[in-house]
Amino acid sequence: KRRVGNENEFVNTISQLDSFKLLPLIEYCKIRTELGENIEPQQLYRFSSYLYNLSRQSTVTKGINAACINAIKIANEIAHISEDVAQIVNVKRVSTTLLTQEEKFKFQLYLHNSTSSLRENIEQLFWKAEDLKLNNGRIIHLIQASYFTDNSIQSYVFEKDFKNYLLTDFDFSSFSNWLEKYIHLTNGSNQNIPERVWGNLLQTTYYWKQPYGSYKSIVCIASDDYCIKSREFLKMVIDLDITRSQQQYLSKLEHDYFLNYSTIDDIIKEADPKRQLFIFFVLIYKKDSEFFRNKGRNYVLYNNPPYLNSLFDIKYRFEHFSERWGGAEWRYLVSDRNDVKYLASLLDGTFWQ
Fold first, then answer.
1. What is the pLDDT of residues 113-135, one digit of tens each?
2. What is the bridge-based pairing of β-strands 316-321 and 10-11?
3. Which of 301, 237, 292, 234 is nearest to 272 (CA)?
4. What is the pLDDT of residue 328?
5. What is the pLDDT of residue 331?
6. Residue 304 is inside which H or E element, if any?
7. Could you tell me which residues come within 8 angstroms of residue 327 by beta carbon, excluding any fewer than 6 positions away?
8. pLDDT tens per residue across span 175-184
9. CB–CB of 155/148 below 8 Å?
10. Using CA atoms, how far apart are residues 121 and 104, in angstroms rounded to an integer?
11. Is-contact 106 53, C-beta < 8 A?
């Protein structure tokens, strides 16, 4: 409702986004009725789910008026040729805003399995994945990841166009397994990748060192949307042991990392700044249950600065920054020589108990 004129006067209105989700359905029902065809509730729900999923995409919301008009036109064409919204793949000149490569692949997959009950199973699982806040309707990374196993994930390459992902090779059981592990690792209701998962990415190639003037930066592409499509993150997903809790799994990753060291002295002599940073993460997260503190995920390091009370013999001072070094909000990552007391428990595994 929207108030007009005096305070007792109202008119009923719907938002542009709601119009996008509703008006194409009305057009579809109108045409199907005029053709004397029954409107199957399941087919209408499929169309509604498709529109709802698109309504979460920025490419639609930024041009919502044009998207709504085009969706109505598409509804008209589909209603004339089929009751199944998946037939949109056979409609010519559909805007890529309404038919992304992901949606196109999903519709082709549905049609490929249209004669079996497998289609309904795939749809149900895809809708569940789309509704996860972290995914926000986009599951291209999970569909493509499902083509890989823990032994082959190192060969994973994200593709916007699905060029090397064949419909005939899609495995429902594999996708189901991936989705279960993905939810387990990311806390399914979360809108962002959990901080401790980000911290464990520090030890992977997702973070890399690069020169920045006379300093060095330890950086990543610090967006959840990009990260969930990365090989390093997806390897964490597929390696997850579903019988363990998320925290138990992450603790094991951290524990196994310290198998690289035999003695406390080996840790103190660690010279690689990225490895030092990961050790700081393990220590600080255990004490504070946070590490990045909403200040971003990138670091600049200074070699051997004066007056630094460092855990390590080779000293670096880390500056934590949000997007880029210089002008961005930042803070020092402070190490403490007193943390030496934790090193024995890191080596024998009792640190995580």
1. 988 889 999 999 999 999 999 99
2. unpaired
3. 301
4. 47
5. 63
6. none
7. none
8. 999 999 999 9
9. yes
10. 18
11. no
Measured CA to CA, the distance from residue 150 to residue 346 in angstroms comes to 27
Alpha carbon distance 246, 184 (integer Å): 6
Instruction: Sort strands 316-321 and 330-333 into parallel, antiparallel or unpaired.
Output: antiparallel
Q: What are phi and psi of 258, to 5 degrees?
A: -80, 0
Residue 146 carries which side chain, given as an amino acid letter?
S
CA separation for the pair 43, 28 (Å, rounded):
11
Say how far residue 44 (Cα) sits from the centre of its chain. 29
Is 299 strand, coil or helix? strand
- 162 to each of 58, 121, 140, 141, 159, how far by Cα in Å? 21, 21, 9, 10, 5
- Cα–Cα distance for residue pair 177/173, rounded to 1 Å: 6
* Beta-strand relationship, 2-3 and 316-321: unpaired
280 close to 308: Cβ distance less than 8 angstroms: no
Q: What percent of the chain has pLDDT over 90?
A: 73
Instruction: Give first-to-last CA distance, the chain, whole Å.
Output: 56
- Tell me what pLDDT residue 146 has: 98
Assess whether pLDDT exceeds 80 at residue 326. no
CA atoms of 324 and 296, how far apart (whole Å): 9
CA torsion 193-148-165-55 (nearest 10°) is -20
- Other beta carbons within 10 angstroms of residue 180's beta carbon come to 15
Contact 20, 104 (CB under 8 A): no
Three-state SS for 335? coil
DSSP 3-state of 70: helix
**Cα 335–Cα 340–Cα 346 angle in degrees, nearest 5:** 105
Q: From edge to edge, which strands make up the β-sheet containing 215-219?
A: 208-212, 215-219, 298-303, 316-321, 330-333
